Amino acid sequence: QTQSTWAGYHNMYKEYRDTSLCGAISQMYMDMAGRHRARANTIHVIRTAVIPPEKAKRGEIKIFSEGNPKFPLLNKISRAPIKKFKSVFQAKRPSLFNQ
Q1: Which sign does the torsion angle of CA 63, 73, 36, 18 carry?
Q2: What is the H or E stretch that residue 32 is in?
Q3: Cβ distance 29 to 43 under 8 Å?
Q4: Which residues of 7-20 are buried (b: 16+ CB within 10 A; e: fewer)?
Q5: Which of 90, 62, 94 lies closest to 75 in space, CA to CA?
Q6: Which of 14, 24, 44, 70 has its CA 20 to 30 A from that of 59?
């Protein structure tokens, strides 16, 4: 794809995972608007292709194609098991990390 900016034209290579090419193009427009503030009329899509997982170049795409991706819970909060142990006010700050 090519993006037109005040400094000229910039070529970019992007990879997206989606069930269709139209969905991947929509992701690309949203991604370019969010990361680069690019408007849709300044983006020119040169070529689209469906590539096999082993030919992916980007790390975030390779993670899903290699097998079991892990999604750790970073802010698991331990709660009182019974209502009578629950307290509204605590004497210490809550810890947002796994204990």
Answers
A1: positive
A2: helix 21-36
A3: yes
A4: eeeeeeeeebeeee
A5: 94
A6: 44
> Which amino acid makes up residue 97?
F
The conformational region for residue 37 under phi > 0 = left, psi -120 to 50 = alpha, else beta, is: left
pTM for the whole structure: 0.61
Question: Nearest to residue 14, comparing CAs of 36, 87, 90, 6?
Answer: 36
Whether residue 74 contacts residue 97, with contact meaning beta carbons closer than 8 Å, is answered with yes
Burial of 46 (0-12, 13-18, 19+ CB in 10 A): exposed
pLDDT in tens, 31-85: 999 988 888 888 999 999 998 888 988 888 888 887 788 887 777 777 788 888 8
Would you report the helix, strand and coil content of the chain in percent, each value rounded to 5? 30, 10, 60
Q: How far apart are CA 28 and CA 15, in angstroms?
A: 9
